[in-house]
Amino acid sequence: MVRLSDLHDEEAAHLLARAEAMAPVAAAPWVHPKPLAESTVAIVSTAGLHRRSDPPFQAGAVDYRILPGDVDFADVMLSHISTNFDRSAFQQDPNISFPADRLREMADAGEIGGVSDWHYSFMGAQPNHEALRDTGEEVGRLLAAGGVDVALLIPV
Amino acid sequence: MATTSISLVREQSEAVNPPRALWVPFALGRPLGSAADPGFQTDVLRAAFAILETAESPTIVDYLVDAPMEAGPEAWACPVNLPVADDPSHTGRLLAEVARLRPWAAETRTVRGRTIFGVTGAGADQVDEVARALGGIADTGDLEAVPPGDVDWAFDMPLLVRHLAEDLRTFYHEAVAAQPGPNAPNHAALNDWIFGGTALGDTLQQVGHHLTAADDFILTMVRGLTIPEGRYDDPRDDADHWAAGSGV
Q1: Which residue in A94, A101, A72 sits closest to B39, CA to CA?
Q2: Which chain A residues have a beta carbon less than 8 Å from that of B228?
Q3: How do residues A5-42 score in pLDDT, each as one tens digit?
Q4: A46 neighbors A154 (Cβ within 8 angstroms)
Q5: How far does CA A135 lie from the centroid of its chain?
Q6: Closest approach of A90 to chain B, Cα-based (Å)
Q7: Secondary structure element (H or E) that encloses residue A68, with its range
Q8: Which of B12, B41, B226 sits opposite A15 (nearest CB)?
Q9: CB-based contact, B90 to chain A, within 8 Å
Q10: Distance (Å, rounded) from C-alpha B108 to C-alpha B134?
Q11: Strand runs labelled E in B8-131
Q12: Fewer CB near the last or first residue (10 Å), C or N of chain A?
């Protein structure tokens, strides 16, 4: 397990300083979701994922990449800039941070209504959340236009 | 549209106050806890989705189930002896080490049917090109020139340095993944191995020294993106070194 107390002192201090600099998201009308078994789910990752043919994420990137709902894991790359997290698990099993297989299984079992045709990935380690406003809202519009009911946000 | 999320750093989720978050006690890089463990991953997802059905205001739920542990430094050691070459250059030692690990990495790629090596722009079979590029930077200290070779690098210098290091770490991790042994090593065990005497670890330290000696904000930042926290052997920590007149 890892809590801040389990990390290297400098990394823990860095993450805590980031937390202290973060502001709450703006209040918005509370959304009462549809029943999960009727909901289409999309993944929004901040792991810096993209297809091999896509340009990798550059330092300070605020743009995003699209990943098809049926993407082949052999085509998925990770160009997140941080060196302080464990990539070996993703190498072994991309579902560890991009659970496309798990969502398909849950859809087949009727636990969720379906899986979005598209998933989205940003690169995390972005200290200025406001910098992501434009592309974040753009992805929000794309998710809504794609009939997504639930966005599953997953860090790395 | 509703959101639910996984939280790895609870303090950050508390600060941001998202509508729904499931805080998990897992290592960074493992937000669903356990690789190749569909049952465990699905349980985590179910817990994240369950918040959709219960929360009426911003909510953080704690997921108090620890993931199965990978082998730590005390329980894992690479069975292949490295380094393997008595070569005066970092490039030479690195290439020899890569050659020693190549069959194991190839086995892992065959079994998995994929690799995430190549984020630098190198092809899956251009590990030597990446090793020459990083080794060359260590040997020459040149942090400006684009490394030679038949690769269309995806990054400019100096950020390319960071991704050369990552591609080689990926290759090394692939190599150990195929070797016999009861447990997969965790992040600390892999770092202990790489920075505990491999040619790659020595090369990264030398590149780190070049990035540090430049006394430049961007290059210092690149060092932080190249070598994990706590792994850089900073010569400035040696009081005698600085007393001798480094000037910083």
Answers
A1: A101
A2: 8, 83-84
A3: 667 777 778 778 878 788 888 778 899 999 999 999 99
A4: yes
A5: 14
A6: 7
A7: strand A65-68
A8: B12
A9: no
A10: 23
A11: 20-23, 59-62
A12: N
The values of phi and psi at residue B93, to 5°, are: -65, -35
- The residue-averaged pLDDT of A48-64 equals 95
B161 is written with which tokens? 């340095």
What's the residue count for chain A?
156
Classify residue B170 as exposed, middle or buried by CB count within 10 Å of its CB (0-12, 13-18, 19+): buried
SS3 B197: coil
Q: Are residues B40 and B158 in the same domain?
A: no
CB A61 within 8 A of CB A124: no
Token pair 């591609």: residue: B167
Residue B49 is nearest to which of A36, A52, A88, comparing CB atoms? A36
All residues of chain A having their beta carbon less than 8 Å from the beta carbon of residue B15 are 19-20, 22-24
> Is the same domain home to B160 and B53?
no
For residue B114, the enclosing domain spans 90-233
B215 shares a domain with B112 = yes
- What's residue A5's pLDDT? 65
Work out the average pLDDT over B86-103: 95
* Closest A-chain CA to B152: A55
